[in-house]
């Protein structure tokens, strides 16, 4: 004859077997309807806007970077907009009478991080102009 404890264990074991939840098989999951509808519109992407203030800060950082120092990275920051970044891949060349610098810079701000490529050249009397500045 079976003992009281054995009967209780068997009763619990047999009772728990009915509690198993069965889900769809892999084949059933793969055959689910994958139709995409247009009922939910995706939000439009915001155009990347770089403020004139950020452009001036980057221009100043590029023009004042001491290339002869051997440093390959130059930080910039704009307290007015909260933007900041690091100028890298900076190289200098002559374009006729002007000295120009090609560069790449990151820009971090509240809405994310972006990478830009640009070119700044002297415009006479020690002034520099940012001729190109576009998102990479």
Automatic annotation (TrEMBL):
Residues 34-135 form the Surface antigen domain. Residues 1-22 form the signal peptide. Keywords: Signal. InterPro entries: Anti_2. The keyword Ligase does not apply. The keyword Membrane does not apply. PROSITE patterns: PROKAR_LIPOPROTEIN. Pfam families: 17kDa_Anti_2. This is Surface antigen domain-containing protein. It comes from Jiella flava.
